[in-house]
């Protein structure tokens, strides 16, 4: 009996060690891939003057250039091979998702399971290449026209530079797309999200140093800096709480008899997140709102510009009432829009009806769909208000006190969300190991003719 118990313990310890080794390999692979990404953000595009690009970014860093430079981890400001980052792939993914809800052929592929998902992923890659080519060519043409305090941004403008710039930037985006897929398959967490996360986190130390430098020079008081850091911690805690919040709809399945045995009768729940849209609404709202503001800022920099361009640039500046109002309106719109895309109450109600499930007190079918839609609309309304609060509070600090752009609400949402998802995946690996150990123990106990007891 003692030898059998010792053998069982040895087997379980070997399982623990093997699972821990596999998890370590995944973590090290993820770290190595992110290091490769950070190295690529310092490899410059041939023919571009890095000093001129840094000067231009300092002049227009408060617009869409600053936001995209934040997402790329500084690669856009340095104009490196990863200047486009993974943004074309994200745009392509969102477009494919929207089209799969509107185009019947793509909607049918979405319902085919694994084979349909592979085809949609392939379409996403093709669209990524197309978007990256257009964006890279636009950047190449824009670089040729840029002038900084140190001269032109491009050493030798012309067709050869445009071709080399497009090939370099598109190649960098495709490499990052492949690297993100490898992280997802062989590492820990979602690879695409981790690449954006790494770009933002890499610049947080410099942003913190810039904030402390403002305190050293007297631009900000030490009391304000301490209060700002405490507010940042409070916002992070608030984001964690709200991202975990969900409404659990009770679901019941009726009992059915097959022969002499009874099946069914389970009670479960349908979890509906408070913020179903995630970080998509702030990203879309910032992009759409900062785009005209940036164009107006560039145009207003021209001495011959019309006065109305100056007024537009001033009204759409950070902290202005019009900017805040449009920002809130766009966040609320995209929160409801994207939630409607990713969750279909009618389809969910039909699936419940097919499997015999029902919400207590609600008739199956259309009544269930209406109930789910009503609950989801209320949750989305609260989630949209939460996104507006998180995004507007840092926006006020940025506009009124000159806090660096990296402490914005969008960046905090991305950091917290990706961290929570990665930690959840690590925990799932550990839980899977524990269940494997229990199953192995049960099988060994059953093989000796005994009845195992699982605690």
Automatic annotation (TrEMBL):
Annotated membrane topology: Multi-pass membrane protein
Any one annotated GO CC term: plasma membrane
Keyword terms of this UniProt record: Cell membrane, Membrane, Protein transport, Translocation, Transmembrane, Transmembrane helix, Transport
Compartment(s): Cell membrane; Membrane
Domain of life, per lineage: Bacteria
Oligomer status and interactors: Component of the Sec protein translocase complex. Heterotrimer consisting of SecY, SecE and SecG subunits. The heterotrimers can form oligomers, although 1 heterotrimer is thought to be able to translocate proteins. Interacts with the ribosome. Interacts with SecDF, and other proteins may be involved. Interacts with SecA.
HAMAP family for this protein: SecY (MF_01465)
Protein function: The central subunit of the protein translocation channel SecYEG. Consists of two halves formed by TMs 1-5 and 6-10. These two domains form a lateral gate at the front which open onto the bilayer between TMs 2 and 7, and are clamped together by SecE at the back. The channel is closed by both a pore ring composed of hydrophobic SecY resides and a short helix (helix 2A) on the extracellular side of the membrane which forms a plug. The plug probably moves laterally to allow the channel to open. The ring and the pore may move independently.
UniProt name for this protein: Protein translocase subunit SecY
């Amino acid at each position: 009996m003692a030898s059998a118990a010792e053998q069982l313990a040895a087997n379980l310890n070997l399982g623990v060690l093997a699972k821990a080794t596999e998890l370590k390999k995944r973590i090290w692979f993820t770290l190595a891939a992110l290091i490769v990404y950070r190295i690529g953000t310092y490899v410059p595009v041939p023919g571009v003057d890095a000093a001129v690009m840094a000067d231009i970014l300092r002049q227009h860093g408060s617009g869409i250039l600053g936001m995209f430079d934040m997402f790329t981890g500084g690669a856009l400001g340095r104009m490196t091979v990863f200047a486009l980052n993974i943004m074309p792939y994200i745009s392509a993914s969102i477009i494919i998702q929207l089209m799969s809800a509107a185009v019947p052929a793509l909607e049918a592929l979405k319902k085919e399971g694994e084979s349909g998902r592979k085809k949609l992923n392939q379409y996403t890659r093709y669209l990524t290449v197309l978007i990256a080519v257009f964006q890279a060519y636009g950047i190449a043409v824009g670089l040729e026209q840029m002038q900084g305090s140190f001269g032109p941004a491009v050493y030798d403008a012309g067709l050869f530079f445009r071709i080399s710039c497009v090939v370099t930037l598109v190649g960098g985006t495709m490499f990052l797309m492949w690297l993100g897929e490898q992280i997802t398959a062989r590492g820990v967490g979602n690879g695409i999200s981790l690449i954006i996360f790494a770009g933002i986190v890499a610049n947080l130390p410099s942003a913190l140093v810039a904030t402390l430098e403002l305190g050293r020079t007297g631009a900000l008081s030490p009391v304000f800096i301490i209060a700002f850091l405490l507010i940042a911690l409070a916002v992070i805690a608030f984001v964690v709480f709200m991202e975990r919040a969900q409404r659990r709809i009770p679901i019941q399945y009726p009992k059915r008899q097959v022969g002499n045995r009874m099946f069914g009768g389970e009670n479960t729940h349908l979890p509906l997140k408070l913020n179903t849209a995630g970080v998509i609404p702030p990203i879309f709202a910032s992009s759409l709102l900062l785009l005209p503001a940036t164009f107006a800022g560039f145009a207003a920099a021209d001495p011959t510009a019309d006065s109305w361009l100056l007024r537009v640039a001033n009204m759409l500046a950070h902290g202005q009432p019009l900017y805040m109002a449009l920002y809130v309106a766009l966040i609320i719109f995209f929160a409801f829009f994207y939630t409607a895309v990713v969750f279909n109450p009618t389809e969910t109600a039909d699936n419940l009806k097919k499997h015999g499930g029902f919400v207590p007190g609600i008739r199956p079918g259309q009544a269930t769909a209406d109930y789910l839609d009503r609950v989801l609309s209320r949750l989305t309304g609260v989630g949209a208000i939460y996104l507006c609060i998180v995004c507007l509070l840092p926006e006020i600090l940025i506009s009124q006190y000159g806090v660096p752009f990296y402490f914005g609400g969008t960046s905090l949402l991305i950091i917290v969300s990706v961290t929570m998802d990665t930690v959840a995946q690590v925990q799932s690996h550990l839980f899977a190991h524990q269940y494997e150990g229990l199953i192995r123990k049960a099988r060994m106990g059953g093989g000796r003719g005994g009845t195992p007891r699982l605690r």
